[in-house]
Amino acid sequence: MQKFAAEAGGPVVCKPVSSPVLIEDGRLKSVYTRRLTRDDLLDLRGISTTAHLFQAWVDKAYEVRLTVVGRRMFAAAIHAGSDAAHEDWRSDYGSLTYTTSAVPKPVAVGMLALMDRLQLRYGAADFIVGPDGRWTFLEINPCGQWDWIAGATGLPIAEAIADELQGVS
Question: Would you state the pLDDT for residue 20?
Fold first, then answer.
C-alpha cells in the first residue's frame, strides 16, 4: 500500500466497495470515501471488514452523476458545500446543490461504447470534473439510484425509463 501511495504521487483516497454502513464495537458506523494520511497507511487494521478501492486523489471542481437510459443521457452536476461533501458527497447531502450539465461529446461516445460492451440499458455513472473542466470516470452502477437526482433537477429520468421499458425511442 505504501508503494501505491508513493507511485500515486500525491494523496490517496479509500472508498469501501460495499455498503457504507457497518457495526463495529456494537455501534452502527458509516464509512465514506476519504483521503488517507501516511499514518493511515501504517495501520490498516479493520480494513478486512469489506473490499476497498484505493486510488490517487483527483482534484475536483464538482462531480457529475450521469444517468444513462438506453441511448439517452441525463447529467447532473453535484456541487459540494462542505469539506466533507467535497471528499464524498454522500456524507453531507444537506450541503449539496445540483445543476444540469452538458455531456462532452467524447464522454458521451465513451459511455455509449461502455454501455454496449457491458450490455447495459441502464447505468448510473459517476465522474469528477476537474478545475480544468476535464471529466474523470469513476464507476458505473447498473442499479444506481436516480430518483433523488430527478427530483433535484427535474431531469425526466423516470419518463426515459418508462419509454425504454415500452420500446419507445
Answer: 57
